[in-house]
């Protein structure tokens, strides 16, 4: 079970959700868990008896129940190569794109919050036997250790330089709330510092929305294709240059990151772009 939030302190995970809601208009609340599911894309070896296999089984049970029933009926219910291939296909079709977007959002949140924690803008504390103990800002300076704490809102206060193995690896995804790793304590932030941090983020967001709006590549590509099609059809004039195209995209997708549009334009630019589309009379 998640711990109770008392005495002006909120769990780190709660703070992540509040920051996510402020930064991202399309925030669903599922991003923290979706970000941490295994990438079943064939890019690395899988753990046949670990979290990879558990997650692959969860996907098969949800999307291929008849195949999952066959697996469960075997004497040895280990996944066969064809089962892994089926799980990979499900992952690519249903999970890969939203997971990539969730990862982008979570990393943006982690960077902002870790910097604020290391600078003392966010005040953090562990809870030991009912007492809140301040976490020195210096314990957040090492991002290789700090980022892992966001997974389950816990750390070993006596060994702040050690990255603990998350309990999520030991249970099926989304099956239950995490429990404390032996020696760990829950991590909280003070409500007062969180409110001040959110207010500062809100001010910055109104000044430059592009810092806080993220769109999947597929959405940007679709809007670019629509522009290309309208240019060919003669319903709109071709933008004078790339900068003009980017400005047009910013009016279509509010707050879209200009650098992302430039990258997607480089990938999707039609062959006729420099000369203009051919017209027939």
The biggest beta sheet, please? 5 strands, antiparallel
How confident overall, as mean pLDDT? 86
Task: List the helices and strands in order.
Answer: EHHHHHEEHEEHHHH
Report the strand count.
Answer: 5
Radius of gyration equals 23 Å
- Helix and strand composition category: alpha+beta
How many domains? The number is 2
Q: Low-confidence parts, pLDDT < 50 over ≥5 residues?
A: 170-175
The residue fraction in helices comes out at: 40-55%
Distance, first to last CA: 70 Å
Principal-axis shape equals flat
Alpha plus pi helix count = 10
Strand content: 5-15%
Fill in the keyword field for this structure.
5 strands, five-stranded antiparallel β-sheet, 281 residues
Describe this structure in words.
The chain is α+β, with helices and mostly antiparallel strands. It folds into 2 domains: 9-207, no CATH class; 215-268. It contains 10 helices and 5 strands. The protein has helices at residues 12-23, 31-35, 51-63, 65-73, 81-119, 143-152, 191-207, 217-233, 242-252, 258-268, and strands at 9-11, 124-128, 131-134, 154-155, 185-190. Strands 1, 2, 3, 4 and 5 form a 5-stranded antiparallel sheet that branches. A hairpin with a 2-residue loop joins strand 2 (124-128) and strand 3 (131-134).
Question: Layout of SSEs?
Answer:
Elements: E1 9-11, H1 12-23, H2 31-35, H3 51-63, H4 65-73, H5 81-119, E2 124-128, E3 131-134, H6 143-152, E4 154-155, E5 185-190, H7 191-207, H8 217-233, H9 242-252, H10 258-268
Antiparallel strand pairs: 1-5, 2-3, 2-5, 4-5
């Amino acid at each position: 079970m998640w711990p109770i939030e008392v005495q002006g302190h909120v769990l780190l995970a709660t703070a992540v959700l509040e920051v996510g809601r402020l930064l991202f208009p399309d925030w669903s609340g599922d991003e923290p868990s979706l970000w941490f599911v295994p990438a079943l894309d064939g890019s690395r070896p899988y753990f046949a008896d670990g979290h990879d296999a558990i997650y692959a089984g969860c996907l098969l049970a949800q999307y291929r129940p008849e195949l999952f029933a066959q697996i469960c009926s075997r004497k040895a219910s280990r996944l066969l190569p064809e089962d892994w291939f089926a799980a990979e296909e499900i992952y690519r079709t249903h999970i890969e794109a939203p997971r990539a977007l969730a990862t982008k959002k979570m990393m943006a949140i982690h960077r902002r919050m870790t910097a604020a924690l290391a600078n003392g803008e966010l005040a953090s504390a562990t809870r030991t036997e009912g007492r809140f103990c301040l976490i020195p800002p210096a314990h957040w300076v090492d991002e290789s250790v700090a980022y892992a704490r966001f997974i389950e809102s816990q750390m070993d206060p006596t060994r702040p330089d050690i990255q603990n193995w998350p309990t999520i690896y030991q249970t099926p995804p989304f099956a239950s709330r995490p429990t404390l790793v032996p020696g760990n304590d829950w991590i909280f932030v003070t409500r007062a510092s969180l409110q001040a941090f959110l207010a500062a983020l809100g001010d910055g967001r109104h000044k430059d929305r592009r810092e806080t709006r993220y769109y999947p590549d597929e959405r940007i590509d679709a809007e670019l294709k629509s522009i290309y099609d309208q240019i060919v059809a003669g319903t709109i004039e071709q933008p004078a240059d790339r900068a003009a195209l980017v400005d047009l995209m910013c009016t279509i997708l509010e707050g879209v990151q200009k650098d992302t549009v430039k990258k997607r334009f480089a990938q999707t630019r039609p062959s006729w772009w420099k000369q203009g589309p051919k017209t027939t009379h």
